[in-house]
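queue> holo job accepted (zinc ion)
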Amino acid sequence: MTSDIDRLLNLASEQLPDTLARLKDFIAFESISTDPSHKADMQACCEWLVREFEALGMEASVRQTTGHPIVIAHDRTAAADAPHILYYGHYDVQPPAPLEEWRTPPFTMVIEDGPHGKRIVARGTSDDKGNMMTWVEALRIWKAEHGSLPARVSIIVEGEEEILSPSLLGFLKENREELSADACMISDTLSLAPDHPALTISMRGLLHAEITVTGPSCDLHSGSYGGVVVNPIHVLSRMIAGLHDADGRVTIPGFYDDVEEPPAEVLKFFDELNFDLDGFLGSVGLRGEHGEANRSAEERMWTRPCCDINGIWGGFIGEGRKTVIPSTAHAKLSCRLVPGQTADKVIAGIREYFAAATPADVEVKIDYFGGTPAVRVPHDDRYVMAARRALKRVFARDAGLKGGGGTLPLISDFKAELGLDCILMGFGMPDDLVHAPNEKFDLVCLEAGIHSHLVFLDELVSLR
Ligand SMILES: [Zn+2]
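queue> job finished
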């Protein structure tokens, strides 16, 4: 590393107490997006962020949306031909409940000893306030030392990530010009270990539907009708049982037609992670593998689609007994989607599957609640490569490239509306208790995150 970047990394480490003081203020806002009683906290948190970005010499403002406000900032100190990076973070957090399980008050940041050294405990330390501070502090330190940044920087911090970003797409549409950039940088994902960084290079999509099976026009006495009428719960159970074949493949018509296989190189990256499947299953009390035959666990989690029943109900489920043949039966269904698949085509297949499995005297209704496509981030994109080089310089080892089995609608929104690929360079640990009581962020992760973002800026210098 150049001596100049070494100096900045040392500064970042020396200034950690100041960083923690700022993080403590950020944490103190009870910015719980799902709870309408915290509307004023959301606004106050935005105003605090604006002051922080203004203190960095940026133009910053709070923008109202149909939901919670969004904070936008721009730094205009870089050359006009410098790369343009849009940094994304979210200031909203999950509710702290159940409160009695917290060792300390959830919105008062405390530093404790933990297995990876000091750890920062409070709601939002890992997801996403602490993680977000890694790039905020890197920008602060670089700018304070050099007076300007090596990249054109825009910032978007939303307050609805934890409720699936309902206002984001509309906001991006309305402000497309202002938010255009070359790449989007997000620190809201996990590393592999404190000394093993990772970039997430794919996320699965998602669709939701509800199935209602109706038979007789009212609940029937099973003594009078049992044996001669159709039972909607039996019908629904057969339909659900038929959703997978003996090889664990989903039987919805056309389900796999458009599934894209990832490049061989990506499968090699996943293989190199030496994923501990036994430990992964053991941590939730399981031993055996399930799912599509002849696929690795990494493939089944990250690059293959799946279909799950999330809930099933109908008939009498109260205490005691009641001999009834129910009129209706219900199930909630979701599918995780992968690149190539579209939610519209998959839901059409779902309708076809249930229609074909519907016997006489039964009606099946499918309510479709919408879908989000999967996203794949090109691992050899020039900005992703810059992030990979930066992580290697800081950690002295290659970043693991992993997939994500879950869904972040904002990533497909950035791609669809702004054409941006998102660099998912997060510094959380798998044991951060994100969304749970006693959420934490390890101090080593905060420090390594700031260092990584400083070196990423250093990499951008040569990308002009
Ligand atoms: Zn988050």
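queue> The chain has a mean pLDDT of 96.
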